[in-house]
Amino acid sequence: MSWNYLYKGEIGPVLVCLHGVGGNATAFEPQLNGLSQHLQVWSVDLPGYGLSAALSTMDWESLVAGLKQFLDHHKLHQVHLLGHSFGGMLAQEFAARHPNYLASLILYSTSAAFGSKDGEFQQNFIAARLKPLNQGSSMQQLAGNLIDPLLAPHGSPHVRQAAIQCMQQVPSGTYSQAIECITTFDCRHNLPKLTMPTLLLAGAEDTVASPAMMQRMASKIGKATAVVIADAGHLANLEQAQIFDQQVAAFIAQCDYK
């Protein structure tokens, strides 16, 4: 299993970024540019995204194994692992299973659980997101409607367009796999076991992973700090890139100082 990636920066600690369900490695372009003077920033294409080969079946076991293989292949150990939304779920799973790989964990606009896909809420979630695809709509046609609820009101049109372009590039099969995978996620029991320094970032206007939910997650992790980013929704790394980068850089510097 080989994952494609973007990389920028020659010195400093290693930051590995995992994108959300509507992203790819380019979703962290602001961080590749904004943090690479002091950090080695890696942004990966998860399976089926960008130039990474798809999985026949996407599940957490395969995703964790793929991330471990990626880190081993590139000899990346004691990394700062940053995961957004779906990528944040993978980051939690990986941290619980392979804590010795991580210097810290950065969870951004994500959740500790979704639940079993057998539940009514989960079934409705899957149906609402996959029904248009099953009826013949393309990701290119759906991207705008999928992105708009994720953004803070009155945001930048440039940011909206960049997010839409990213979503449009997601293969419909990969999007379907990821949505199905999300509904099986439950890492709540692992939160108290996470012992590495952890930063939780939430957009103040995020209706998907609300600040209150992120703060509840933080309260269950031993060495956790929760930060709310103003005027941002679910895509704070794009919407408020400079503030996002400042929070990440300060947290990593603090981890290294200790």
Describe, in short, the structure shown.
With 258 residues, the chain is of the alpha/beta class. The chain has helices at residues 29-34, 60-73, 86-97, 120-134, 139-147, 157-168, 172-182, 211-219, 236-239, 241-257, and strands spanning 5-8, 14-18, 40-44, 79-84, 102-108, 198-203, 224-229. It has 10 helices and 7 strands.
Describe the structure in your own words.
- This protein is of the alpha/beta class and 258 residues long.
- The chain has a single domain, classed as Alpha/Beta hydrolase fold, catalytic domain (Rossmann fold).
- It has 10 helices and 7 strands.
- The protein has a 7-stranded mixed β-sheet, with helices on both faces.
- Helix 2 crosses helix 3.
- The termini are far apart.
- The model has no long low-confidence stretch (mean pLDDT 93).
Helix content percent band:
40-55%
Tally of distinct domains: 1
Number of helices: 10
Rg is 17 Å
Q: Report on the biggest sheet.
A: 7 strands, mixed
Q: What features would you highlight for this structure?
A:
258 residues; alpha/beta; Rossmann fold; 7-stranded mixed sheet; 15% strand; globular
Topology:
Blueprint: E1 5-8, E2 14-18, H1 29-34, E3 40-44, H2 60-73, E4 79-84, H3 86-97, E5 102-108, H4 120-134, H5 139-147, H6 157-168, H7 172-182, E6 198-203, H8 211-219, E7 224-229, H9 236-239, H10 241-257
Parallel strand pairs: 2-3, 2-4, 4-5, 5-6, 6-7
Antiparallel strand pairs: 1-3
Helix pairs in contact: 2-3, 4-7, 5-6
